[in-house]
Amino acid sequence: MNTMTMKVSDLKPHPKNEEIYGVNEDISDLVKKIKKSGRVHTMTVNSNGVVLAGHRRLKACIELGIETVNAEIVDFDTPEEEIEFIVLDNHQREKTVEQKAKEARVLKEVESELAKRRQGERNDIVPNLARSSEGKDYGKARDKVAKNVGLRSGHEVDRAITAVNKIDELRKTGREKDAELIRGVLNNRSVSAAEELARNIDIVEIPEEEKPLIQSGKKSSYSYVEQAKQKQKPKEETKTCKTCGMMLSANMFYKGKNVCKNCCNEKDSERRSGVIKDLFGNPLPYDKELANSQKVKDAIAHLKRDPSEDSSEIDYGMEFKIFKKTLDDYYCVNRKFIDGEIFKEMPSEIKNRFHEEVNKLSKYIQLLQMHLDE
Predict the structure, then answer these.
(1) Which of the residue ranges 34-38, 120-124, 211-215 has the most confident prediction, judged by mean pLDDT?
(2) What's the Cα-to-Cα distance from 156 to each of 126, 161, 196, 206, rounded to whole Å?
(3) CA triplet 322, 325, 329: central angle to 5 degrees?
(4) What are the b/e assignments for 182-192, b being 16+ CB within 10 Å?
């Protein structure tokens, strides 16, 4: 490093400085200070005369007509180190959130490039170790950037960069008003609100009279962003539950089922509780003591017997109970046919098929009647 006197006309601002801090900065306070003291602090430049530290001083000198300044010559090994120096030199400077976001963007690029170089060095030494440390390096670099620019976390760094990238994109396409709206939210409201607005700026609808309030930070853009996001959501598929009759979201049904999860879960709960229901949903009495009694076991054994080998006296009372139970079950199962509920709108060709089956059934009834009349 060496210090020398240089002509102000030979000095050039670093292009990254303009990208980060803009070109319309207010330097009136600095102009007054230099005019009063007659002194300009030493600037830092590289050997090509590009300013690394002292851009505001350079502008003030041009405005005041100062022709020469003292400059310290500093050359870095890489362009990335040079950019890092510019940002870190402005650490104490009062900045907008947008400027912090732009600092974060260039520092992240710098850290990414430096990380690639470190990665290459590691690959040459320990390949497996290099791969395992990639994620950790990214997280550490992002957090380091957040600390250096004054943002709260690495996650906030990513959100802030999303916002400023969108601002730049909108300005390039001539959408200055939208760019200014996001900039206002970023500087006057919060990084998260600006990022949400930036991601949805193409679909959000904000009344013109509300935009100045949102841009100044006096009103939140959250409700308008949420409305836009809801409109973009695909229409949810619905189904009607065959048990409860409610129209519900398709995700409330198990795959291939027409009964909703609530009804399925209720049915499972009833099954586990030991409550037995008939086909119409009426609870059936269940006597555990009777079900396990010798009387029921004898009835089951009687049903399973082989009549051809049965030489014992017939229990007509038992036979009547079985006949009655079978008949009751038949009615329960076929009630909609016996009561005629299903025949109201039935096509004639289907009715004919029912007639055929009823005629067959009638023959069995005649046989039964004949035996009873003997």
Answers:
(1) 211-215
(2) 33, 9, 12, 25
(3) 140
(4) bbbbbbbbbbe
Using left for φ > 0, alpha for ψ between -120 and 50, and beta otherwise, residue 147 falls in alpha
**Rounded CA gap, 175 and 168, in Å?**
10
**Prediction pTM value:** 0.57
Percent helix, strand, coil in the chain, to 5, is 65, 10, 30
95, pLDDT greater than 90:
no
Q: How far apart are the two ends of the chain, measured CA to CA in Å? A: 130
Q: What is the pLDDT of residues 166-215, one digit of tens each?
A: 999 999 999 999 999 999 999 999 999 999 999 999 999 999 999 999 99
Q: Are 195 and 167 in contact (CB under 8 A)?
A: no
In the chain, the percentage of residues whose pLDDT exceeds 70 is: 87
Contacts of 347 (CB under 8 A, 6+ apart): none
Find, among 83, 141, 127, the residue nearest to 119 by Cα. 127
Count how many Cα atoms sit within 13 Å of the Cα of residue 374 in the half-sphere of its side chain.
6
Closest Cα partner for 254 from 264, 244, 246, 245?
264
CA neighbours closer than 13 Å in the CB half-sphere of residue 84: 18
**Contact yes or no for 253/242 (Cβ under 8 A):** no
Structure token digits, residue 177: 């008003």
Rounded distance between C-alpha atoms, residue 25 and residue 17, angstroms: 11
